[in-house]
Amino acid sequence: MGLDGNGIWQYDESEDAAPFSEMLNRGQQSVSDAIEQLVYASGPHNVPGAEGVATSTLQVERVGRMVEITGSLTPTPNWGALNALTIPVGVGGIPADCAPGVSRIYTCPAGGGTASVVWRVTINADGSIQARCNTASATTVLHLTLGWLAQPV
What we know:
The chain is mostly beta strands and about 150 residues long. It has two domains: about 40 residues, no CATH class; about 100 residues, Phage tail base-plate Siphoviridae RBP, head domain (Immunoglobulin-like). The protein is about 10% helix and about 40% strand. The chain contains one helix and eleven strands; from the N terminus they run ββαβββββββββ. A hairpin with a 2-residue loop joins strand 8 and strand 9. The longest helix is centred in the N-terminal third of the chain and has 19 residues. The relative contact order is 0.18.
């Protein structure tokens, strides 16, 4: 008798309700299985930069099924000479347990001096991340706080 790993009471044959322990645990186990999805936490993971990214302070973390990525990306000077709006820059990747079930696309406006700078960030279903910008000479730091629901563990 005692609490399982998810904090749900599990009966055993030493209980006063010994003949009913199996019946009582049926309900408790289903509750425990459901709670496991809510208490799962991955801890924060750093998201590395890739070609075209000078620095990345991105971190991704999963709590329950909610995933959040926060931080910033700084492009290399004239990164757009290597890439254009139609050619994404690989940012890095996130752990499989944090990846969305389907690709997610976010548009992120950023100040760019006299020009309007718009980033398009794609979090792919496989956990890879791509960033695109509407101007090739953008050196504006991209600050992100994005969230989505991950697949059950």
